[in-house]
Amino acid sequence: MMLKLQLKVPFATALEAHTFIPIFHTWIRESAVPNEVLIDVADYMHMAEGPFALLVGHYRDIAFDVDSFGHGLQIVCKRDLEGEPVTQVRGLFEHMRAVTSLLAEALQTPPSRLLAPERARLRLCDRLLGADTGVCAALERAVAEVAAAGTSVEAERGDSRRIPSWRLAHAESVLA
Known about the structure:
By secondary structure, this protein is an alpha+beta fold. The protein has one domain. The protein has 5 helices and 8 strands. An 8-stranded antiparallel sheet has the order 2-3-4-5-1-6-8-7.
């Protein structure tokens, strides 16, 4: 089963989107993000909601994102990830850790003070697969297996037309 996933972790402190633009450009010049082909930087600060600063990659986008979940760092897997759901979730968590480490270094901030992993949001960016209860259950089991003990996973149920989402509470394992 191949999944397109999105992971967002809120920032622990107030950060400005304009701070990310030069950092993202530096990452492109230095090919700093492991296992990614970086393409371009987009500035969407004129938008009311959405990715305010976006680093476009071939496989994954990295964004300073603002939405109802708050200001945070978001990784969006644009290409289907291969392997079992647990392998895919583990890979997404590992990528978030690598990006967080690079960002903390650029901001000269300890990684533990950059993001607030007591909560995170995982989305399955595929409405067709999201309607499949077996796929959603497999994804929840994968998150439970990859996440550290004490992390709870709660499905955001509601409008079936929306992208399936899960909130992770006490999600320190996303960054551990």
